[in-house]
Amino acid sequence: MTQFNFSQSLSGKRIKIxxxxxxxxxxxxxxxxxxxxxxxxxxxxxxxxxxxTDLDNLSQKGISFxxxxxxxxxxxxxxxxxxxxxxxxxxxxxxxxxxxxxSLSTKSESIDNFIQYEGCSEVNWAVPTxxxxxxxxxxxxxxxxxxxxxxxxxxxxxxxxxxTDASPGTVTHGNSxxxxxxxxxxxxxxxxxxRISDNPDIDEANEPESLYSGMTHSREVSSMMNLMYYMWxxxxxxxxxxxxxxxxxxxxMYFIPVANPDGLMWNEQIAPSGGGMQRKxxxxxxxxxxxxxxxxxNRNYDYFWGPxxxxxxxxxxQSSDVYxxxxxxxxxxxxxxxxxxxxxxxxxAMNHHATSNLIPHAYNGYPAAAxxxxxxEYHKFCHDMTRFNRYIYGEAxxxxxxxxxxxxxxxxxxxxxxxxxxGSRDFPAYATEGVLALAPENGSWISSDGEGGFWPSxxxxxxxxxxxxxxxxxNAYHSGKFAQFHDLNPSDIATTSGNLEFGLEYLGQTLxxxxxxxxxxxxxxxxxxxxxxxxxxKLEQRKVTAAYTLNPGIQPNDEIxxxxxxxxxxxxxxxxxxxLKIYNxxxxxxxxxDTDNLTNWTASGGSWGxxxxxxxxTTAITDSPSGAYGNNQSKTLTLSTSVDLSSSSVGIVQxxxxxxxxxxxxxxxxxxxxxxxxxxxxxxxxxxxxxSRSTNRYxxxxxxNTSTGKSTADQDNQPTGESIYDGDxxxxxxxxxxxxxxxxxxxxxxxxxxxxxFVFDSDNTN
Length: 766
Known about the structure:
Layout: E1 13-18, H1 22-31, E2 40-42, E3 45-50, H2 52-60, E4 66-69, H3 72-95, E5 107-111, H4 142-155, E6 164-165, E7 178-179, E8 182-183, E9 192-196, E10 209-213, H5 221-237, H6 242-249, E11 252-256, H7 261-270, H8 332-342, E12 346-351, E13 358-361, H9 375-385, E14 392-395, H10 396-399, H11 407-412, E15 436-438, H12 461-477, E16 483-487, E17 492-493, E18 497-506, E19 514-522, E20 524-528, E21 541-550, E22 559-568, E23 573-583, H13 593-596, E24 601-604, E25 609-611, E26 620-622, E27 634-639, E28 651-657, E29 660-661, E30 667-673, E31 680-681, E32 688-689, H14 712-715, E33 723-724, E34 727-728, E35 734-740, E36 755-761
Parallel strand pairs: 10-11, 10-12, 12-15, 13-14, 17-23
Antiparallel strand pairs: 1-3, 1-4, 2-3, 5-23, 6-9, 7-8, 9-11, 16-18, 18-21, 19-22, 20-21, 22-23, 24-27, 25-26, 27-36, 28-35, 29-34, 30-31, 30-36, 32-33
Helix pairs in contact: 5-12, 9-12
């Protein structure tokens, strides 16, 4: 381990700026303080953890603040003494909890992926047996990280590679250390990567590749710890979860858990119990042996880099936390990642950061409208990641702050910037199309949530890591030849022969052929599956049919069961499920807008109507018949008659729908009631939990676009945790299915007077 020398004036302070104005926040940014990572907000202030240089700069700008904690290193040392033992005890208890995954009981799955998951709440991501907290406030030290990678290899040598220096040794740097042609950091440290695959010691040329990186900013604990959690989860569940096995067998996942080892090791020395303020690397800039030395590696990539006035979000001042370096790719760490990426063919990338519970995507470094041409891909990518953690997402200048010279911007690349750089598209592997890259910010931005900014409470590390699990899985899914399956068939089959209808939606970044095989299980004499689907384009949606003939003599209420298997031309079986239907069951109520219009419904709070944009026939019901819906609306559409479920062993509510609702703020619900006055939201296949303010950091104070700012009331508009619909279904119809039985939506089970209604609600802006 390299020894660093340092002075004793390294402890930062926690301060509070009371009720900062937009002008004051702009000054904070001008000082070089990054509000996108680690800024905590309260109802009446902004809380920051800063070093002496930043504090002096704030004072020089005339910004007044109150010191909440005078000695952060001492604070975290005392906190570590009491909290780390408690966190480790809680971790052991969580490891003993059982894993559970709920799915709609009208089908059973044998091979799953988490995009197809239909539970009302997130998967219980069972804590991996081998996952451990580190000695530094729960964070692993660099030597502990390397030890964990070695332990993974020793326990799972057929799934994970030996840790390997990411430097290909093909470049030199006049001021950095080189070791036998291998390119290291300023302090002589290698940057290590590992590969998880079924043949981890072999680069299988045809397998899609995805990248995961952490600790580009070396004080952002959750950016690395969530990766260690995910890696252990994949390794431990490979042999028992067929979906994970099939994913690993057909993909290559590359991990750089610590992209800034010098910064992490410096934090270990100045604050061994946690709380170190070093964000940047240890480049020879501002070498006052304090936490403001070095370069912000996430401002050093050669895309939108530099002081050009049309860019923003970095500084040319060496003491700034967002110092971009003397030139693009001036730093060995960014050169190593650049050259490593050039040697691979990554399709997707997750470059983790902390904090704010959101996902900014390209372009991060361009404040004006600069479309990448891949906004729809980003939208679906992020949508599938955030169904349950509800992180807000969007272009960074709109939801967070500008950050030029950003790693994810460089990985995506695009048209030449003012420096002539096309980002990763300057390399042959990405010349046609760059990497779909994201930079999730993990951990709450609200101080009362106890997630501690850069250094979360040790008791919160697992919780934050679990929120990132789905994002990490989706990163791998979207890299390959991947499609999502949609069942478009009602639960009741009324004829003895006909066509089953299914939707296929192509999500992967690697194009290929998709096969949906449909085979009889019971009640069916024959099924002709649809032909293999070729010639896909990304995000394309297709409806396919499978002709069926039921068994002779089938009777009403008899079960019909068939199996669907979704696979690609590499043999990757991404989904397999047995689906249950009923032949001519009892139908208690049906509504057809073609014939009924709105006669079965009672509207209140605003106009509802019909549209000719229908799934079938010529008519559908809509909340906004005159065009886009307005702000500050709250209205309902209630079924005028009640339904008697008292003799039903299982009830199923089905309807076809599509929507475009401002995610995290506006929403629709379908609710049920047994008395017409108390209404409870219903959970279905496509519903999601309502967002909370901890995932809605989207206000004019944080955004460069004040016209899209959100008030606290807007941030709290959705009912937190309740089943809702929001987001953009991208003009895709789905068949929603809501189960009513003893466990799902059980308050309606056996009801003699079940009532149903739709609720629409929009906030005050956008």
